[in-house]
């Protein structure tokens, strides 16, 4: 009987070993396969396990789909997988074994520590290494056999620094860095960026195993920092948050992508802001297909590194299907690849990195949610609302006093023509101020239809004021928008204004064409392309160039500009303020210069049905410091008419001849 059992057990063991494609033992054996093999070294356990498992899911899904579609030359692709255990030495040993076994391309790791250990070894062995998640800056210079379809921490740190300085207004910052090459790299880049902007930094460093942060928290309470930049992985970050709460420290916290983990979603994390890679365009067919297949396979939404793991396989297989047989050939072709995948379009820079757009999220009611409209976090919205309530009494008193004073003046000298002109001007202007104060329109979430109705009313009021001032006065409009011509509702539309029915937005643009024809107007419209050196920026700039070359561009200029010379574009290489999407300013060209009246700014994302709209009174040289302006300007009047140093960077739209700026 014992002999029979032993034989059965042995037979089962042989069957399992012969059918396995994943090797996780200390000394994995080569897996026979009729087709190409891809090595995969991912941290499936340890502190980076969350990201390693997500990347593995993406790799497995991609390999199954590749083999179902014929593999490479009708031969199936197989994977040799090793758990790096978040341990650089384990990862390095696995790469040595794979290289000895003839594997020329390896995907791994998501851990920066492991990838930094793998990179010089891959360079030495001439094994192509593709990391789907490691972000340490040192990887950029690790060698020409080393790639990552991920951004460097330098890219994320600069976005974090811009938010801290320009949006949150931090000048005195505490940096808490908890172990690993990842935290060292991103904290170093963050410190350099904020110091360049004049902020002071105090750093507190800890080893990954440490969990007692009370001494540093005590120092932070005494020194009254504006904010804390917290870098590390889930467990230590959660411990810091709990001890911060116990000590009663209320200083705001900004963290990094690694913060988005189940162990950090605790009550003490409420209000924490953290950076994250922007989700790819959900309307893209490749993105949509990946998400659908991932949900079908794993019954959950894809998490961080799942799409990059999936795309890593896709890019490698695309090269294999072209007949690229060696790692040396692959490294040359990868630098020229433009791959449309699950994470959007992937293009490598000269360092083998893929810069990605950074967005910000916030913990609200125990969940990770996008920051509020235009970059206002939920905590920021509450703080703003509190401040508005404090200021409401003063604003109301000033507005009522002005109205009473004007009424008294009107009663005394109602028949004087010059006084009537003055009163009409002041009444229209003060009416705007009163409505902003009492109807809470100074910042309000509205529909697109409400927004265009407001713009129409503002345009009509400005036109009436111009008529009061008489001949020789022109209306001035300065417009900034992130909408390129193809976003215009009438783009590619052959119909005319007599067609019905039309949406309020379409009616607005039809009326705008008539308005600029009959009204003496000085108009300038500037299309803002954010971060032209990023993949998203380059894509938008290329789309803008295609629009300029389109047959519809002439009609676009005719309907939206009194002269083609009114149309400009500007590539903003720094971060455009998070709260600002579009801006429209109204003024009058009078003797001696421009008299600015008012403006409206909006915060929204493309495709949103609701926007956060703000009304602004101009000509008072006052501006909320909570809403930083582009180019570090101090007030909205200067934004409406920028200084020469900015105007020189705005280029005529008709002269756009290249998809990138030099």
Question: Could you give the topology of this structure?
Answer:
Layout: H1 2-19, E1 37-42, H2 49-68, E2 78-83, H3 88-100, E3 105-107, H4 112-125, E4 128-131, E5 146-148, H5 153-167, E6 172-178, H6 180-196, E7 200-206, H7 214-223, E8 227-231, H8 234-246, E9 252-255, E10 273-277, H9 285-298, H10 306-321, H11 327-334, E11 339-341, E12 344-346, E13 358-364, E14 367-370, H12 378-412, H13 417-438, E15 444-447, H14 448-469, E16 474-481, H15 504-518, E17 521-530, H16 535-548, H17 553-560, E18 567-572, E19 582-590, E20 593-603, E21 610-617, H18 636-640, H19 644-647, E22 651-652
Parallel strand pairs: 1-2, 1-3, 3-4, 4-5, 6-7, 6-8, 8-9, 9-10, 16-17, 17-18
Antiparallel strand pairs: 10-13, 11-12, 13-14, 15-21, 16-19, 18-22, 19-20, 20-21
Helix pairs in contact: 2-10, 3-4, 5-6, 12-13, 13-14
Structural account:
By secondary structure, this protein is an alpha/beta fold. Helix content is 43%, strand content 19%. The chain has 19 helices and 22 strands. The N terminus and C terminus are likely disordered.
